[in-house]
């Protein structure tokens, strides 16, 4: 029986992909073929394919076709942040699972990475960020470096997995985070993190480095998060300044 709605087509194709009738790497029928076989308009077929692509099941390329990428939907995460307060709300939705913590002294290589003086002392905390959805895959791996002046923050971090470390520093020590410098770059997933993040070695990944400064401009914390590329989208909106519009 022919399907009559885009939702029906999405359901049918998703089930066929999950059942292996369209294996990963194979091509789905063309838009024209789907229109003919299901009695749908080209607009309706494209709408259904858009939804499948949003789910991470397929990809579409001009002159190539619609390729099956996964047998089950990919859990994704879209982050849209404009203020320090909005960043703090992130922790309430995604909990931290600590993998290790250690004290270290920044050698020259680490000092360059953190943009801090060599020989300074830091608490290094490694953790996974997890969605609260049952059986969801990890969102990212995060390495956080905290100034040694906040030495007893380690226990608080373990007791409050839903609160960002920067927020814990503010609450305990009264050191307000006034500015965050963020850098985003592309990389390949390292072998040592691929298993933790349940993804492939050398698959595309995004690395986000944030440096947290207080009102005096002193560096209090550095975090470096590594996200599998297909599970993270950073959304940012920009507006033309009023001065330029005049």
Automatic annotation (TrEMBL):
Name of a matching Pfam family: GntR
Keyword Transcription regulation: yes
Residues in HTH gntR-type domain copies: 3-71
Keywords annotated in UniProt: DNA-binding, Transcription, Transcription regulation
InterPro entries, per the entry: Bact_HTH_transcr_reg, Chorismate_lyase_/UTRA_dom_sf, Tscrpt_reg_HTH_GntR, UTRA, WH-like_DNA-bd_sf, WH_DNA-bd_sf
Alphabetical list of PANTHER family matching this protein: MANNOSYL-D-GLYCERATE TRANSPORT/METABOLISM SYSTEM REPRESSOR MNGR-RELATED, MANNOSYL-D-GLYCERATE TRANSPORT_METABOLISM SYSTEM REPRESSOR MNGR-RELATED
The protein's name: GntR family transcriptional regulator
Taxonomic lineage from the root: Bacteria, Pseudomonadati, Pseudomonadota, Betaproteobacteria, Burkholderiales
């Amino acid at each position: 029986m022919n399907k009559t709605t885009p939702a029906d087509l999405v359901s049918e194709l998703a089930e066929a992909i999950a059942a292996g009738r369209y294996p990963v790497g194979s091509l789905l029928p063309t838009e024209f073929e789907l229109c003919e076989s299901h009695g749908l308009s080209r607009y309706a077929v494209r709408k259904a394919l858009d939804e499948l692509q949003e789910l991470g099941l397929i990809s579409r390329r001009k002159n190539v076709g619609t390729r099956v990428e996964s047998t089950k939907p990919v859990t994704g995460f879209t982050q849209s942040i404009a203020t320090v307060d909005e960043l703090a709300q992130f922790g309430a939705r995604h909990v931290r699972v600590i993998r290790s913590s250690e004290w270290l002294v920044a050698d020259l290589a680490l000092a360059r990475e953190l943009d801090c003086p060599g020989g300074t002392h830091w608490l290094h905390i490694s953790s996974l960020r997890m969605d609260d959805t049952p059986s969801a895959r990890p969102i990212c791996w995060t390495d956080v470096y905290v100034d040694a002046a906040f030495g007893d923050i380690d226990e608080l971090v373990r007791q409050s997995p839903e609160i960002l470390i920067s927020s814990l520093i503010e609450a305990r020590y009264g050191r307000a985070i006034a500015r965050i410098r963020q850098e985003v770059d592309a990389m390949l997933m390292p072998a040592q993190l691929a298993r933790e993040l349940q993804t492939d070695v050398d698959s595309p990944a995004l690395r986000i480095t944030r440096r947290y400064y207080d009102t005096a401009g002193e560096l209090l914390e550095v975090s470096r998060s590594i996200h599998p590329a297909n599970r993270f989208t950073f959304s940012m909106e920009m507006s033309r300044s009023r001065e330029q519009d005049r």
